[in-house]
Automatic annotation (TrEMBL):
Transmembrane segments: none annotated. Keywords: Amino-acid transport, ATP-binding, Cell membrane, Membrane, Nucleotide-binding, Translocase, Transport. InterPro entries: AAA+_ATPase (IPR003593), ABC_transporter-like_ATP-bd (IPR003439), ABC_transporter-like_CS (IPR017871), ACT-like_dom_sf (IPR045865), MetN_ABC (IPR041701), MetN_ABC_transporter-like (IPR050086), NIL_domain (IPR018449), P-loop_NTPase (IPR027417). The keyword Transferase does not apply. This is Methionine ABC transporter ATP-binding protein. Residues 2-241 form the ABC transporter domain. The lineage of its organism: Bacteria, Bacillati, Bacillota, Bacilli, Bacillales. Gene3D superfamilies: 3.30.70.260, P-loop containing nucleotide triphosphate hydrolases. The keyword Nucleotide-binding applies. One of its GO terms (molecular function) is ATP binding. CDD domains: ABC_MetN_methionine_transporter (cd03258).
Length: 341
């Protein structure tokens, strides 16, 4: 559905040239929810603007829904853009128009007759759960409701792709979850391909099938969400995964334990899929001459299954602890022996 080939975007500014997107190759499949995560300045917004033709690449090719977005112009580009809906962090609604008229606005631009566009707007109002609010103005809506209007408006022209630019960053956690659930619902009902950019791993965990990590204009890591969670390769990816798995106090707890128990090992275990449901600790205690103290644990749900992290303190003879660690590895559970640094 979307292919980027060797895409580079260089801006020229008063401070010189800035390479915002640096030789990016990406393939996003039809119907998937694809997340791009990165810190501020990584180049995410530039990348998303290249996808809807708001920016032209300095080099490379951008194909969206069968169209070479960078090389088309005028009427052809406007038509191609109708296949690409977009929602924004700050909603970008028209404040003087009602919910219904905001949603119907793209249809007005596309020259759809009034009765048809109002009918379509009412269908979309139902789809995004805004029934009863059609005559309200944006200022009378909550943040979550505003984003629902944004989503309905983005879907007005029946796009094939929905681009989400930090779409939940201005919302509280509960509202974020309800908007993410709506995006999954739309993805499943309409078969829409969704590309979202975010700096929050929670968003990726909750709804994405695959994720790309962006740093300094490059995609430094890419894969299925559960695989990336279980086995992050780059330092930056590990930091993003820690947003979910490792509460702030973990480091303090571990430092405290190193002082309290100079002997034994503090071990981080990571589980994915079915491994999260096994009685591993009971098996270890039963089969090896060791003691285990559970320090901290958490299981998170991703779009593709569970992912869990458990911090334990193990003590016993070096030989028994080594045997127990081998046993854990054989159960497809990740093992990392923590060091006191
Ligand atoms: N129009 C522009 N002109 C000059 N430089 C730009 C322009 N747009 C972005 N940049 C620069 O390109 C780099 C990437 O910016 P971009 O906005 O794409 O990153 P981002 O990951 O979306 O970050 P943020 O979430 O803060 O917007 C930054 O160094 C930024 O200053």
């Amino acid at each position: 559905m979307i292919t980027l080939e060797n895409v580079t975007k260089v801006y020229s500014s008063s401070q010189g040239a800035v390479t915002a997107v640096n030789d990016v190759n990406l393939h996003i499949k039809e119907g998937e929810i694809f997340g791009i995560i990165g810190y501020s300045g990584a180049g995410k917004s530039s990348l998303i603007r290249l996808l809807n033709g708001l920016e032209k690449p300095t080099n490379g090719r951008v194909m969206v829904a069968g169209q070479d977005i960078a090389s088309i112009k005028g009427r052809e580009l406007r038509k191609a853009r109708q296949e690409i809906g977009m929602i924004f962090q700050h909603f970008n609604l028209l404040w003087s128009r009602t919910v219904r008229d905001n949603i119907a606005f793209p249809l007005e631009i596309a020259g759809v007759p009034k009765d048809q566009r109002l009918k379509r707007a009412d269908e979309l109002i139902q789809l995004v759960g805004l029934h009863g609010r059609e005559n309200a103005y944006p200022s009378q809506l909550s943040g979550g409701q505003k984003q629902r209007v944004g989503i309905a408006r983005a879907l007005a022209n029946n796009p094939k792709v929905l681009l989400c630019d930090e779409a939940t960053s201005a919302l509280d956690p509960q509202t974020t979850d309800s908007i993410l659930e709506l995006l999954v619902d739309i993805n499943q009902r309409l078969g829409l391909t969704i590309v979202l950019i975010t700096h929050e791993m929670h968003v990726i965990r909750k709804i994405c099938d695959r994720v790309a990590v962006m740093e300094n204009g490059k995609i430094v890591e890419e894969g299925k969400v559960l695989d990336v969670f279980q086995n992050p390769q780059q330092m930056i990816t590990k930091r993003f995964v820690q947003q979910i798995t490792e509460p702030e106090e973990t480091k303090e707890t571990i430092a405290h334990l190193f002082n309290q128990y100079p002997n034994g090992k503090v071990v981080q275990l990571t589980f994915a899929g079915h491994a999260t449901e096994r009685p591993l600790i009971a098996e270890l205690i039963r089969n090896f001459e060791i003691t285990i103290n559970i320090l901290q644990g958490k299981i998170s749900q991703t779009h593709q299954g569970s992912y869990g992290v458990l911090f334990v303190h193990m003590s016993g003879t070096d030989e028994e602890v080594a045997k127990a660690l081998d046993y854990i590895r054989q159960q497809q559970v990740g093992v990392e022996v923590m060091t006191n640094e």
